[in-house]
Each structure stands twice: as structure tokens, then as C-alpha cells.
Design a protein that fits this description.
Order of helices and strands: EEEEEE
Helix content: under 10%
Strand order of the largest sheet: 1-6-5-3
Oligomer: single chain
Number of helices: 0
Radius of gyration: 12 Å
Largest sheet: 4 strands, mixed
Structural class: mainly beta
Length: about 90
């Protein structure tokens, strides 16, 4: 299991996109594990208030999100909460 203090599970773990741009998350995990792409920190987040949630992505599945507001949007994997990143819009 990765070190819970790192954010190197997503590549890249920090991404920059313009408002109206496209963010596509692809589950390219070589181990074929399921993952999610969920906005928030994973620390007690209520999914009813998230900006985006891909649900489960199996190997090679993808999820696309188009940001409508500028700001920093943290994200994580709902199944593996040590997997974190940030999108700068």
C-alpha cells in the first residue's frame, strides 16, 4: 500500500485546467483495481455536496468533468482515500 502521506498515486497529482476545459480521468492502474475520481478530501465528505464523482471505474474506464468555476478542487479515490490530488481551475 502506498504511503498515506504521499499524493503520487494520480499522475499528475496536480493538474491545471481553464474554466470550461475538460478533465478526463482514466483508470490505467496496471493491477486492474477499481478506483473513483471524487471531489473533496475524503475526510468525512458527504457525497451529496461533491462537485464530481465518477462512481467506480474499472480498468481502462474513464470519467470526464468540465469545471464551471475557478478555484482549487481537491480530489481522492473513494476506495483508497490515501490517493489524493488537486485540480487548479
Amino acid at each position: 500500500m502506498p504511503d498515506a502521506t504521499t499524493s503520487d498515486c494520480y499522475t499528475p497529482s496536480t493538474a491545471t485546467v481553464d474554466v470550461g476545459g475538460t478533465v478526463t480521468m482514466i483508470n490505467s492502474d496496471a493491477s486492474k483495481m477499481m478506483h473513483t475520481f471524487t471531489s473533496g478530501t475524503g475526510l468525512g465528505d458527504d457525497l451529496s455536496g461533491v462537485t464530481f464523482d465518477s462512481a467506480y471505474l474499472t480498468a481502462d474506464m474513464s470519467y470526464t468533468w468540465i469545471p464551471e468555476v475557478a478555484g482549487e478542487v481537491p480530489y481522492y479515490c473513494g476506495l483508497h482515500p490515501w490517493m489524493v490530488g488537486i485540480i487548479i481551475v
